Amino acid sequence: MKNEDMHLDSMFKASLVADLLKGMTYIHDSEIISHGNLNPRNCLVDSRWVLQISDYGLHEFKGTHENRLSTTNIYQRKFLWRAPELLRNPSPPARGSQKGDVYSFGFILHELIGKNGPWGNIPLSHKEILDRVIDPSQYNMKRFRPSTQDLNCPDYIVWCMQDCWNEDPDERPDFRLVRVKLKEMQVGL
């Protein structure tokens, strides 16, 4: 998504978002319940340009040791999309949570629109970002999220993103409501 040479027009972005929303709604309605590790690496585009979600339902094989933060920057990168309540939990559920998936979706949307990584141009290491997400009060903040000021998109997309990032998981929309909030994006598909 960061490839500046690849121009994704608004229709293609809308199509990817629609595919992701359909897939996540399906996962949340299935016995799998939640993805638990939703990030762009798990959003694959097939030969027909349809987004397919991968790496779900594998929680039992991975084990809980993978939920702990390591000191290596590469390992920490995988947590940049993870919800704060899951990062703060010393024993998070292996399969994550539905509201955690919605939080992750907000970052994928931010990355797709901004084409600048999940946290935009924030000049911090992965560890510094995660420290602020886990305990924003330590940095005199209520919460820590990327800036949406420079995003070139309609306000309703930014508002939906911010709803997905709500600090309180109970206040985050489910994927059905996200689809409604982003319905205007689908015009013309």
TrEMBL record:
Matches recorded under Pfam families: PK_Tyr_Ser-Thr
Record-level GO cellular component terms: plasma membrane
Top enzyme category: lyase
UniProt-listed SUPFAM superfamilies: Protein kinase-like (PK-like)
EC number per UniProt: 4.6.1.2
One GO BP: receptor guanylyl cyclase signaling pathway
Keywords for the protein's UniProt record, in alphabetical order: cGMP biosynthesis, Lyase, Nucleotide-binding
SMART domains: TyrKc (SM00219)
Superkingdom of the source species: Eukaryota
Domain Protein kinase as annotated: residue spans: 1-189
Reaction(s) this enzyme catalyzes, per UniProt: GTP = 3',5'-cyclic GMP + diphosphate
UniProt-recorded Gene Ontology molecular function terms: adenylate cyclase activity; ATP binding; guanylate cyclase activity; peptide receptor activity; protein tyrosine kinase activity
Identification of the protein by name: guanylate cyclase
Organism, scientific name: Strigamia maritima
Lineage, highest ranks first: Eukaryota, Metazoa, Ecdysozoa, Arthropoda, Myriapoda
